[in-house]
Amino acid sequence: MSLLRTRAAVAPLRRRFDDSLTALPSVDALVAVERPEEPMHCLRPAAIAEAAAGFVAGFPGEVLYAVKCNPEPAVLRAVWEGGVRHFDCASANEVALVRAMFPEAGIHFMHPIKARGAIRAAWGEHGVRDFVLDSAAELRKILAEIGAEGQDCAAEGLGLFIRLAMPKGTAMLDLSGKFGAEAAEAAALLRAARPHAARLGLCFHVGSQMMDPLAWRQAMALAGEVIREAGVRVEVIDVGGGFPVAYPGIEPPPLGAFFAEIEASFEALALPGVTLWAEPGRALVAGGGSVVVQVQGRRGRDLYLNDGVYGALSDAGVPGFTFPVRLIRPEGPAPAAQEADFVFFGPTCDSADRMKGPFPLPEDVQEGDWIEIGQLGAYGACLRTAFNGFDRARLVEVRDRPMLEADAEVSLAA
Q: What is the pTM of this model?
């Protein structure tokens, strides 16, 4: 008997749909009926579909949803409903999931360093033809694993995309230190890849939650220099992701400002026959998800919750993101009108399971209350771990609007 065992680190989110619950359109109504003692992930598929449709309509090129941002099937279906037909995948599991759900989807393996088995499975089992790389070694690996010897890769539809390194920028989450070939190396890789590729591209990423549209102008100018230095034809420039969304105290420019800057800088390159791609994640799904947590204890301005940085709130830990919050108290006295700033602690025994916020809530918040935390459709559920055994959570779909959007409507009405 083999001693090898395979198990998932995190239990799947438990879906809870029945006739009585689907008749309850709002988070408040669900909490009043269910009184959840485990974290409850609330999806808003309509909001995700709307955001996807808006991005597809506004971006001057092809849109690839970054699956890593939220691979929940209900989210993928909503993105598809919004008109997205291409997916940026980073692993064999993501590739298999998208192919199972959408047999006709365009799948693009956009991780610059891949396992050999993942390349073989993507190419041979799932019909993936586009692969990113940032080194000569990765190019050799891809060609070897797709069986390039003895076959015309270009005739087979192989797409090769060179990841260009970006200088450190002003994004909230800098991505410049791990992937990407410097300009001279990227030009050499374009030349090396051209004979093998039916479709050759250059891609880059300016960083996650990038607030400055000019970052794409600077990146596009560098991409143009690399293409001219390479001296070979390219078919695609992929501007990556990083498109920002609102958080408390953070109001990015409208997406149209980013699209206009990308289109203008692309046109300035004067590269006929080249197509633009983008890989949005956060911009499509952040508002489409929230998490309802329960207060399990209070000590001064510290609240102890049943979810934390090892669960859906990883970005509220070391990255220091603040999220919109609101108190839900179905019974008992109405919450106090006066607010105070609170710090959150998660349920694990690790003292690093701390979210400094600040998170403004009614000053009389108490054990047993619920708190809805918004803008967690991006990098919420997918970053959960099983640490300390706190790996149980529930998933519901709701029809109310995203929290920040609802807050804005209340403010305007006032």
A: 0.93
